[in-house]
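To assess whether the prediction recovers the assembly geometry, we first specified each molecular entity separately, as shown.
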Amino acid sequence: MRVEQIAVFLENKSGRLAEITSILADKSINIRALSVADTADFGILRLIVDKVGEAENVLRDNGFTVGKTNVIAVEVPDRTGGLATVLKSIEKQKLNVEYMYAFVNKTGENAVLIFRFDNMDRAIESLQKDGFTILKSEEVYSL
Amino acid sequence: MIWDHGKETMARGDIVRLQLERLRTTLGRVAIHVPFYRNRFKDLGFDPSTFESIDTLRELPFTTKQDLRDNYPYGMFAVPLREVVRIHSSSGTTGMATVVGYTRRDVEVWSNLVARILTSAGVGAEDVIQIAFGYGLFTGGFGLHYGAEKLGASVIPISAGNTRRQIQIMQDFKTTALVCTPSYALKMADVMMDVGVNPSGLSLKYGLFGAEPWSEKMREEISDRLGIIATDNYGLSEVMGPGVAGECQECNGLHVNEDHFLFEILNPDTLEPVKPGDVGELVITTLTKEAFPVIRYRTRDLTRQILEPCPCGRTFARIQRIMGRSDDMLIIKGVNVFPTQIESVLFDIEGTQPHYNLIVERENNEDKVTVLVEVVESIFFDQMKKQRTMVDTIKKRLASELGVGVNVKLVEERSLERYNGKSSRVIDKREL
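The predicted structure of the complete assembly is given in tokenized form:
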């Protein structure tokens, strides 16, 4: 139920993101989803890739500071209000969202929402109780 | 004007005789009262009663800041605490601080020596002197205060900070002499401009500056902008505080109060005396201190002796304005900062040998410090909130350890150059 996500520390310098993506490309690692959170000084890049361990190693070898965390991927139909229903459920359950980002899968039928909660176990349980589809990690990596 | 004409214009031969006599007494006293020196002298087989020539002093070991720390708090005192009337401490926090004490007579001597320096800078009994040094454990505030009172000047003990109020009081109280750090004097000039106060309308005539490195260029700027005679003065708490040396109105080097302090200028690497007039590290032995005498204290300050006689008539030797440090200590906003302090805080937080750079700049006449810290996994988070909290934590811990606020910027791993020496972690961009 949990998906491994890689976080990379980035200084706000031009070309760093391009560098990371080409390092991954060289190793034929596919990026499934990506988000950047930034401040004036630095940024945190979050990545979901098909080969987590390999990506982690190659980035570290290239001098990046890498962290690995678990996130949850929730699949919702890609239509108006899809996200709203999930957020409503989260609010009702008083779950704390640390951050989230989203992408649409290849077929374009479903959207995948990536969530990081402060309490992951409770989040999985509540979302499932409300009938949401939580993707297994293999499903996400191979999307 | 010369405050103590009899002493300050002594013939060289008389100075040396007086120094030898006082030095012998001091060595005898520390051998009896300070276990640190007693043990050292015993190990060397040195007997102070046989001390006959000042040159022999060179056979004695140095006293270092570390020695003072090792004897924290009172181990170096040569009198029982009941005879101590004042305690001061050097800047730096608990781990780095040193404690110094003064007997009633020490305070009396200190006041007189500061009165000498004030007099040589032009200040007299008719002056109104605004002391904008911090009052507290720092020797600057109280040192100048007691000297100015001894002189009979009217003292405004305003202490440091609150620049607008300083300027208001300077106007209203008709201050004629200002005591502060040179950078603060420039800051005052800036604020005067901001609030529309014309310095030429003030009563200010003299400025005595010290407690941080500065330059001839800064002196010119201060003199021009404030319309005053700006002089430099030097001291350090381990030796006494302000009053060790000070400039006369020739504004060309600081007269050392040689009847109370014996100074040597040594090559910091070989620890041998430099050729007369060459730059070296200042080493000071106190000649009259009762509570806290030091023998061959390594100040780590670099200077050179000015060999020409001074037209002011004083015969005490002159040293040039302090030109730098022989270690990696930085003086930031008047506070002593060692890169090792930063290292230990970062090590504590990261749990591993930190890589960092320290950048010191001067913006609008104020020192600004930025610590660049290479991110490692132990301080890296995928959550922005936690990451920012970590930056704040580092900032707070550094500020509390150093006693001065710093900016912290995280940088990528391996982005800072790797050095062998610690001093090269410091990038001092201040142009004084």
